[in-house]
Design brief:
Chain lengths: ~110, ~120
Amino acid sequence: LAKTTQPISMDSYEGQEVNITCSHNNIATNDYITWYQQFPSQGPRFIIQGYKTKVTNEVASLFIPADRKSSTLSLPRVSLSDTAVYYCLVVRNNAGNMLTFGGGTRLMVKP
Amino acid sequence: GAGVSQSPRYKVAKRGQDVALRCDPISGHVSLFWYQQALGQGPEFLTYFQNEAQLDKSGLPSDRFFAERPEGSVSTLKIQRTQQEDSAVYLCASSFAREVMNTEAFFGQGTRLTVV
């Protein structure tokens, strides 16, 4: 599976838009990009998944350029409760059932 | 239940002791996963069940680790002769579909194991 690279940490302030970019240069045709969020002392929680272009849900947007070698998770107007670790994963269809997590990005939202 | 339930939440074991960690997945979920998460790291895959069948155990770090899901619902992760390097949070996740692609995985809160 394609290895993912994302910033180790980011700081933001309440009300700002946060964009976390993940690179996955070796992504394959049947790979999807998935993001999970993890709060302290909790298990990861699914945020969003996409294949190409843009996906939006009530929590976030995911932007994937045409070459799919990177993706950007966008969190609009963050609040203190968005402080968490965000993981970018590449998930391959029909190729096993494990999710492979990297180190994630630690987002700290300040007042 | 409303979500994936794991017990105990915290476990302190003396080195050499055997431990058993329990996972109650969401009712009806076919797939069940175990992950190990060291402090400050992302979760690492241990093993995967589809119903009662253990289809992938490639992530189990040693033969001291054993997992079972005999009736296709509750699962137990057993660690024999615990070592200090086994100290971590053990996460259980379940999903409705057979393929992780087709649906999200729901994680429990984890069991924090400390080996002293």
